[in-house]
């Protein structure tokens, strides 16, 4: 194979100074580790308490056998050997954090999360739930909390005798919460949310709530009233300004909603429109015609309808279909409204959902320009980049949006934004609505319906199906001597510090809790989430972490708690801490730490901190686990050997990469990377490169395929031009974009099989508005289309070598190359190695060598 050269337009920076010649084929690669991990877990389940191996990597297909520890898809630790005290944690420099993905999708072969329909005991002191790690004493009359060691009485209806030999309860096998690490618990009315009246929509909202909540029989303030849970209500809010209609965005939004509310939609649905006024639509299936109510008051908005706004999409499909046709074709086809009252529209959506909770999906095309929340266009951003004003691009310019996001989270309402714009819309401000509520941001800059309408419809379908729970409250509890230092996503500033409230909780959203020894951060020594006992863990006992998510199930409307448990051994040896490290979980922590602080520090300083933190871990390993090795030799801890590559990949994401990048693009990517689960983030920071032409060669070698199976696995390649050839066709996917790259020397027969033509070179605008390969009736086409359907998680783009603009995006995703104003992987290793060696020889820290102003212990 003759490797192709990296195009000059995609070049980044080069290492300054002399460096050793390093063969990039022998340095650690995520691709090789992934392949070995897939092979290891292809034929055996991962036993969560008995396995001698590290948990499967995030993207590895596997079946977990829950033995009391939750499966890795639900919880990951940055190290599975907890440092016994803060001194050892500081020495190792590995962040201590737990990442939870409560509603991660499970494979069909895996036992579903068991559902418990009775009351499960909770600790009187820390309020933790009884679990497989608790012990029972006094003949079954009491139980000892594994988190805080408090002895609790057993409720009468939960009593069971103990086996005198094993000290296990006689009903152990009938109690899923005592056998499994992850359980769902149906809860009683005391766990229902209380009726919430958002201050941003007073006083009209109170008049529309169908109860006397908030007043007692004599007119005074009453006790909070619990609201009965219902299945998820989703309110689609569509921009209908003249600009949105003329651009085709409004029509594309209606088409996307039609796809989303098709068979299998969870819950009830409502539709709103907004421009200079707000439109509400009554979709009651008993009606024969559509009814529209208009609200022109923008300062003190309200919802003018309480019945018929939310309907079963199946029962009202005839009215929904007609409305989605009429919005672009009749109701707003000739509109002259140029102003967008987005903030009032979102407040009205909150008013409609405040008495139940739910999910707002807002379609945005233009900058809010009318009423409260009006935003003005910003001057040239290029003058701000790299200056002290750079941080302003990532912070909300109007605190009304942050206040509204806080109100939505409190009311159990999540807000997702589907943005298809042709100009800047200030996602730094609008994005807080999704950042604080658990919603998603789907972003389509320079919106063109012929290119973006179909991918947008797929994304809207996905984000509505991924909303598994709503009206959520998350708490993480941990062992004595540990406390929760911070959460990510970060809660609104006014939210309780020990609780994370989210309007919606998606299956792909991960919650990360950073832990510390002692009582710093969120919790005081008297907090019920700590167990007391100083800041040193007992090496004879495991360290425990429990995540409890109180939520309403989107499909059924049942109020439940999902409990996730994990026990990890405690160690006083640095070698064990490094041996138990999870490189991907550490990378997730680094990404969250970086991308949630873009409004606080310059981008270059954040990237410098990533390098310093990665190098500090390498330095700590050298000093504490490989001190006898010569300083001139590069040594990487086995469990963290791909950390430099992942750190570099984080620096090359569009949220923080160098060069000129529109702030809306940066904010959209930062939101994704700061909320994604581990598998999605790993695909983004190290995109997956697949040589599709290898499959065609396999078919040619074995004779023409006679079926449509995809049994032959396409082995991923390292993400760099050095592993590509001009005769190839490659699929490169980072979760946002999937680029199909076509070399200039591809076999004409393969092009004929895939595209129906022997050549695609020199054809103007070829593939510009194409969303998929043509469906041709031949085995090669069917098999490669099947692979693309399976592996392409992002919007499909086509790039011909040296011809298409999409090749720039393709080149930027090859993170091992020098691009994105950054170093190549080899040069980045040399950069880290230089400072590690200098710190070893000078007996200093990496920060002192690099000159960064990082806080201790980094």
Would you mind describing this structure in some detail?
This protein has 858 residues and is an alpha/beta fold. The chain folds into four domains: 1-67 and 582-662 and 682-686 and 816-858, Four Helix Bundle (Hemerythrin (Met), subunit A) (Up-down Bundle), CATH 1.20.120; 115-179, SH3 type barrels, CATH 2.30.30.380; 199-212 and 226-467, 3-Layer(aba) Sandwich (Rossmann fold), CATH 3.40.50.410; 688-813, Severin (3-Layer(aba) Sandwich). It is 28% helix and 17% strand. It has 23 helices and 28 strands. Strands 14-13-12-11-15-16-17 form a seven-stranded mixed sheet, sandwiched between helices. It has a six-stranded mixed sheet with strand order 6-10-23-22-18-20. It has a four-stranded antiparallel sheet with strand order 3-5-21-19, covered by helices on one side. Helix 5 (249-260) packs parallel to helix 11 (449-466), helix 7 (342-353) runs parallel beside helix 8 and helix 14 (603-625) packs antiparallel against helix 15. The chain starts with 29 loop residues before the first helix and ends in an 8-residue tail after the last helix. Mean pLDDT is 90; it is low at 203-207, 209-221, 523-533, 705-712 and 853-858.
Strand and helix layout:
Blueprint: H1 30-41, E1 46-47, E2 64-65, E3 75-77, E4 82-83, H2 86-92, E5 97-100, E6 115-116, E7 135-137, E8 142-144, E9 151-153, E10 182-186, H3 204-208, E11 233-239, H4 242-247, H5 249-260, E12 268-274, E13 278-282, E14 291-295, H6 317-331, H7 342-353, E15 358-364, H8 399-411, E16 413-420, H9 427-430, H10 432-435, E17 441-444, H11 449-466, E18 467-478, E19 482-488, E20 500-506, E21 511-517, E22 543-553, E23 559-568, E24 570-571, H12 574-579, H13 583-595, H14 603-625, H15 643-651, H16 663-673, H17 678-685, E25 688-691, H18 692-702, E26 729-733, E27 737-742, H19 748-755, H20 779-791, E28 795-800, H21 806-813, H22 825-842, H23 846-850
Parallel strand pairs: 1-2, 4-24, 6-10, 11-12, 11-15, 15-16, 16-17, 27-28
Antiparallel strand pairs: 3-5, 5-21, 7-8, 8-9, 10-23, 12-13, 13-14, 18-20, 18-22, 19-21, 22-23, 25-26, 26-27
